[in-house]
Amino acid sequence: MREYNLFIIKKEYYEYYQKNPLFLFDVLKKLYVMKENFNYGISLYSQLCERINIYNLKYYLNRKYHLDNERTFYIDKSFIELKHTRIVVRSKYNTKIINEFSQFSKCFFVCDFINNDYFWLDKKNILICT
To answer: Which fold is adopted by the domain 2-128?
Structure first.
């Protein structure tokens, strides 16, 4: 099973990190595994990433898939967890559900920290790695 973490990168950093996504992945991975210096981690996260409005996403997923869930969803064999800091998608087979989120921001950066995989997701529902 793969675990994809979706982050919304702030626009002022989006253009810079599009040219160097590996560096962004490394920074986010260090935050993901951080076990101390939490104040530093929170500060760095706040500089790089936007807070996610989970209420709009929750409304969208509930309406589209005829559900009544709060923060966790099981859609098309994928487990989705909405957090203010990131969206977590766990799936063995289906990663198409990730494309659902592209309409909410063009600045989504997707990381699979376990498999060292990362990519940009844009509004055209294509993966971007430049």
So the answer is: TATA-Binding Protein (3.30.310)
Is the full-model pTM beyond 0.70?
Answer: yes
Beta carbons of 38 and 128 less than 8 angstroms apart? no
Tens digits of residue pLDDT in 19-50: 899 999 999 999 999 999 999 999 999 999 99
Describe the crossing of helices 21-33 and 38-48 by its angle, rounded to 10 degrees. Answer: 150
String of DSSP letters for the chain:
-EEEEEEEB-HHHHHHHHS-HHHHHHHHHHHHH--S-HHHHHHHHHHHBPPP-HHHHHHHHHHHTT---SSEEEETTEEEEE-SS-EEEEESS--GGGGGGGGT-S-EEEEETTTTEEEEE-TTS-EE--
